[in-house]
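Lab notes, practical 5.
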Amino acid sequence: MWTVIVAVDPNANTSLLEWVRDQGREAVQEVLEVAHASQIPNVLTLRSDQPIALWLSTICPDLPQWAQVIMTLIQHRTAPTRIVLLAEGTPDGVAGPLGSLAATPLATAAAVFTGQTQPDTGELIYDYAAIGDALWGSGAPVVPPVADPSVAVSRAMPGSALAAASAPETPDLASSLPSPSARPAKRRWWGRVKTPSAASGAEALDAAEPRVVRAVLPASRLIVVVGGKGGVGKTTVAASLLRQAAQRYGSAMGIDFDYLKPNLALHFWPIDARMPNIDELFDSIEIARTAIRGRGIDEDTERRMVGEWIERLRPPEPGVFVIPGPTRRLRVSLPPERTPGYVLDWALAQSDPVVIVDTDPALDEAAETALTRAGQDGVIVLVTTPEYDALAEADRVRQQMVQGLGIPDERIVLLVNHRGSPHDAVSLKDIRTVHLPNLELVGNLPWVPKAANAALMHQRAIPWPRKVRWDHILVALTGRQPDRHAHKRRESRARGRQ
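Output from the prediction step:
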């Protein structure tokens, strides 16, 4: 059974979704709508073990910029993949029906269809029977995998230097192709004047309850973990992501910005150990500011103080570097103003492939600093348990981030943690369609008593079962495939930080 991803264009996707459900019901198990090419890598990663048929158009937004990334992920999938490409020209004006996609491996691997334009109506007519056969037919070809599946995959943001380097050259030939607004706006079936019936997004959702995939923009290196309320396992998720990232990429850095409940370090140091105390740094900066209040302490001096204190830290285990929060005590220790920004800047200036930040649900200055940065170039993982009160708090935090900090929903992803008893839990279907419909689900951690007990006891290594696919979660968040030389990099990084 195939999963069909429809990424033709936002105006036609809905009607084409219904056509796929109607015509392919015996061979198609799921139909997904994708409005932008940046969404496709995340879908491919999350469904790496499912047969996928991609139905694309050359006018899909930003497809030329994402073609190389999409093709690399397809070649590294374990399940079969098919590609159907409608050749309708690219909006950048490059000549030819394939436009700037003509020289890409994506176009080479795809079954390409060119429509016939009706001179009187401007409609494009396609042989939909042939398209259906190419998508889910038993004899249609699939994309062959690459010989070496261990090659690392990186995802570049459209417009970044990496995306520009990987995109084919696009000479200025805008006059050779009609503008996007002038291209045919309708497609219809071969030999018919009737187009597939269009339905609104709400009607389509009510009719077949499709899983609408929303844009999850790839993170550069920064992953910020936030929870709606205490007790949802936010810090446990952050610690697990940190340890798993170090194992797969060679190294990872964690920052504890939850100054009210700074527990991240407890997952890496023994509970009775004398852990580094960032209060020392906070006190030093406050004393320096007070001592020279008349003329003020300059920013470079404060940044140097932050860097010198962090550089004295030692990794608690190979490949893992943790900047801890304050030592737990009766009074709450908060950082001096602007200090969290200095800490985050120092961390992002290092060479660790991933930086993971644990934050306070109250969204204080430290949390806002990390969230704002991730809203620009990173990803935010919203952790919740499947209970009604936790979901309500998760939605409250989401609204604070979106409305208060101006962070787009596309930068926020959802991770559901069944850390308590599995009984009386809200179903994933209701979570995704009723409680938090705007967020893409990247992980669903099952109820595992051993893992839950280990987390509560701050055990140094959480015994997650094999069915928890941290590798899939990390690839979805970072766009990086595991590094086959990670163990060597861990050892080298550990020696360098001794």
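Observations recorded by the TA: Confidence is low (pLDDT under 50) at residues 147-219. The longest helix spans residues 388-404.
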